Amino acid sequence: MIIWHKNTELVAIRFHLTPETDITLPPNYNYGLLGWWLDRIRQDNPALSAHLHDGGAEKPFTLSLLTGLSPNPTYHLLRGNTYQWTISALYQPLCQWLATWLEKLPESLNIFGGV
User: Fold this and answer.
1) Among 34, 95, 97, 104, which residue has the fewest nearby CB atoms (within 10 Å)?
2) Quick one: average pLDDT of 102-112?
3) pTM for the whole thing?
4) DSSP line for 5-53
């Protein structure tokens, strides 16, 4: 159970992702992560997703690149290796959405077709 105060305005979450298959990522894979994440929000709360996507130049969140990747023009996620991904929320409605989303998060996620 995830519990933080309803007025929380700053949360950081680190995911440890382990691919089930080898995956080659495009050089701009971070846009795919952003799109995947905003789509999760859109499915639950379209108004929040629209605000985050279209709400101006400053975004109230950060998404890290995957850590654990080798510095190479072609990124490969290797089956069984673990990679980290961090999401930070700097906005009370987004923090509350994250708490709800984490409660129902499945055991595995389909990001890039295999993580």
Assistant:
1) 104
2) 82
3) 0.86
4) -TT---EEEEEEE--SS-EEEPTTHHHHHHHHHHHHHHHH-HHHHHHHH
Terminal C-alpha separation, the chain: 23
- Interatomic CA distance for residues 112 and 109, integer angstroms: 9
Neighbouring C-alpha atoms within 13 Å toward the C-beta of 18: 4
Does the structure show a pLDDT above 70 at 1? no
Residue 14: count of CB within 10 angstroms of its CB: 11
Cα three-residue angle 59-40-102, rounded to 5 degrees: 95
**Structural domains of the chain in order of their starting residue, each with its CATH number:** 11-103 (3.30.70.1890)
101 Cβ contact list (under 8 Å, min separation 6): 40, 41, 44
